[in-house]
Design brief:
The complex is a heterodimer of chains A (about 325) and B (about 290). Chain A has 14 helices and no strands. Chain A is mostly helical and about 325 residues long. In chain A, α4 packs across α14, α11 (about 220-250) packs antiparallel against α14 (about 285-315) and α13 (about 275-285) packs antiparallel against α14 (about 285-315). The N and C termini of chain A lie far apart (about 60 Å). Chain B is an all-alpha fold. In chain B, α6 packs across α8 (about 155-180) and α9 (about 185-190) packs across α10 (about 195-210). The longest helix of chain B is centred in the N-terminal third of the chain and has 32 residues, at about 25-55. The two termini of chain B are about 45 Å apart. Mean pLDDT of chain B is about 85; it is low at about 1-20. Classes of the chains: A mainly alpha (about 325), B mainly alpha (about 290). Chains A and B meet through α2, α3, α5, α6 and α7 of A and α2, α5, α6, α7 and α8 of B.
């Protein structure tokens, strides 16, 4: 539109109106920038979430199995009935999912808090400790699973060599029916405690020193100061850590599948809901049944998140 | 104390004071702290070190517990993995998928995070963040349905799309808390000076957000690089990523431990090197929004 400008009005042009064609578009886009900016991402996520979720819900009501191109028949709530009365695979999987998540979370939060407190005040060599904390966190879970497979190998693994040194008999670890789940929890704790440490440390450093200082002046010892001052102040951060870690722990798949393979081992020792649903879908092609499991699994996740968010609101008050 | 005894010799006094200031429990705690930190570091590093050692051992040496730490290192495992098993292809696949999905997610996610932060679109943000909660399998089944009917399973496009699904919510989440922390005044004064709102975003806010975008980008790259489940279902033999390639390593009868550890090292080393150089960004990204309540 600079054409319409009188020659010699260059200074005015640089400061003045944008071209009118572009001007309309620019004005329009500025007015609607809220949705213009947000819409592409939301449509992308919406199409990739809402549609699949609706489809999963639909599949859970059909007898879809075998091939994805096979014809399906609507069978109502039969899949749910089958799943909810299945005490052989489904309910044990629910139990394993909850105990895996629960035990791992407790270990990670307690250990994470201890390590965060150790790191709280500056010290020499802090940089190196921080690097050590970061490494497990970024390591590829499948590779980590393979690494632990070697370490926990009953015959050649380092774990049993270590136990042998202190005179404890060798353990079957991953290959034991009773020890496999505990071993995978250990792996999860190794990999993800650092995450909790980082979150809690960020919380600790953002705390003001004053309450702690005041309690110190009043003669409180360090245990009292931690349990009566620091911990209550840290509670919201602790719950955020539990929330973030809990969601991922419930959905743990990589290390379980990498260490025990299909079906969570030959006795389904580590078969959590996610592993079970994956196996039903892609190892046995029972799409209808697996969709029902997934919907129930999803409800468990949402339910536990909701409980935690409520708890957080109560604590923050 | 020095005030009370002004006549004392100056050489002895400071030492006495320092002793008094640090009671026994404090000194004990210092020792305890050093020991505890060493234990923590060993616990975190030793397994990785063990993996690295095993990757340089022959399988005979791995089975010989006497040669746990002392052995003659060999590069054969790496040569095997990289040449015979074509790991360069998988490295490229992993890199390409992570890079493209991260780049596209930044293009989509940064403006969205900006809008959600500035217009406090909580409900919209919730939709995007839902993606972090939903179990991947429940999306994989319908995706697999659709893409296999379109005969697109095994193509890079599908793999990138699925990885964007992890990357985008992460980027929106991190960038939202980053934009929340940027002061509004800068944009407002830029608009007073004649910039349009979008102009202010482009010329003022975006340059300020570069370190936030770096944070989000690095983390999203790492998450995509590490992702296993989506690639397990949606990748083909040409598009296989490293985690799937490692998994395939053990699906045969006997495990080649040396090769497996070399493969595991190959997949973790690049990401660890990135992490070492971008430590601050990773930490700030992982803890984004965690302390605000």
């Amino acid at each position: 539109m600079s054409v319409t400008n009188a020659p010699g009005s260059a200074p005015a042009r640089s400061a003045g109106r944008p071209p009118s064609m572009g001007g309309n578009f620019s004005a329009w886009s500025n007015r609607h920038r809220k949705w213009l900016f947000a819409a592409p991402a939301m449509i992308f996520v919406g199409v990739l979430i809402v549609f699949p979720l609706a489809w999963t819900l639909y599949l859970s009501l059909t007898d879809s199995q075998g091939s994805v191109r096979a014809a399906t028949e609507f069978i109502g709530l039969e899949n749910y009935l089958t799943v909810l009365t299945d005490t052989e695979r489904f309910w044990p999987a629910v139990g394993r999912t909850l105990s895996f998540t629960g035990v791992a979370l407790v270990c990670e939060v307690v250990l994470g808090m201890c390590v965060a407190l150790l790191l709280w005040r500056p010290f020499r060599g802090e940089k190196w400790v921080r690097v050590a904390i970061l490494l497990p966190l970024v390591a590829t879970p499948v590779a980590v699973g393979m690494m632990w497979r070697l370490i926990f190998d009953p015959n050649i693994g380092f774990a049993n060599q270590l136990l042998g040194m202190v005179g404890i008999p060798a353990q079957p670890w991953l290959s034991g029916q009773d020890t496999a789940l505990g071993t995978t929890i250990f792996m999860d704790v190794w990999q993800w405690t650092p995450m909790v440490v980082l979150i809690l440390l960020a919380g600790l450093t953002s705390l003001s020193d004053e309450p702690d200082e005041a309690a110190r002046v009043d003669g409180a010892n360090s245990f009292q100061r931690f349990f009566y001052i620091t911990l209550p102040l840290m509670m919201p951060t602790v719950i955020v850590a539990i929330l973030l870690r809990g969601i991922d722990a419930l959905k743990t798949f990589d290390i379980l599948y990498a260490t025990k393979g299909k079906g969570g081992g030959s006795f389904h020792e580590v078969e959590t809901l996610n592993v079970y649903a994956y196996g039903l879908s892609f190892d046995y092609n029972q799409y209808g049944l697996s969709s029902a499991v997934l919907i129930l699994f999803f409800m468990i996740i949402i339910g536990s998140m909701w409980l935690l968010t409520m708890r957080k609101k109560a604590v923050s008050k | 104390m020095t005030v009370a005894t002004p006549n004392q010799t100056s050489a002895a006094t400071p030492q006495v004071i320092r002793r008094r200031r640090k009671p026994l429990p404090t000194r004990l705690y210092k020792v305890f702290r050093v020991v505890a930190l060493i234990v923590v570091v060993l616990f975190l590093i030793a397994p990785l070190f063990w993996m690295l050692l095993a990757s340089f051992k022959t399988n005979v040496d791995i089975y010989d517990t006497g040669k746990a730490l002392f052995f003659s290192p060999t590069g054969e495992n790496y040569a095997n993995v990289l040449q015979r098993n074509n790991y360069f292809v998988f490295i490229f696949n992993s890199f390409w998928v992570a890079f493209v999905s991260t780049a596209l997610s930044i293009v989509l996610g940064v403006p969205a995070a900006y809008a959600m932060s500035r217009f406090t679109m909580h409900r919209s943000a919730l939709v995007v963040l839902m993606a972090r909660v939903i179990p991947g399998v429940s999306l994989l089944v319908p995706w697999y349905y659709v893409f296999s009917n379109l005969r697109m399973v095994g193509k890079f496009e599908v793999l990138i799309l699925s990885h964007m699904f992890v990357a985008l919510p992460l980027i929106v989440y991190i960038m939202m808390s980053y934009f929340d922390s940027l002061p509004l005044e800068l944009e407002e004064s830029a608009q007073v000076d004649g910039l349009t709102p979008i102009g202010a975003f482009r010329l003022i806010t975006l340059p300020l957000a570069v370190s936030g975008i770096a944070t989000a980008g690095i983390l999203s790259f790492i998450f995509s690089w590490n992702n296993f489940m989506f690639a397990l279902v949606l990748s083909g033999s040409n598009t296989k990523t490293l985690p799937v390639a490692i998994f395939d390593f053990v699906s045969y009868a006997s495990i080649d431990w040396g090769g497996l550890m070399a493969a595991a090292t190959v997949v973790t080393i690049p990401i660890m090197i990135i992490a070492l150089f971008t430590q601050k960004y990773i930490v700030s990204g992982l803890t984004a929004g965690a302390t605000k309540g």
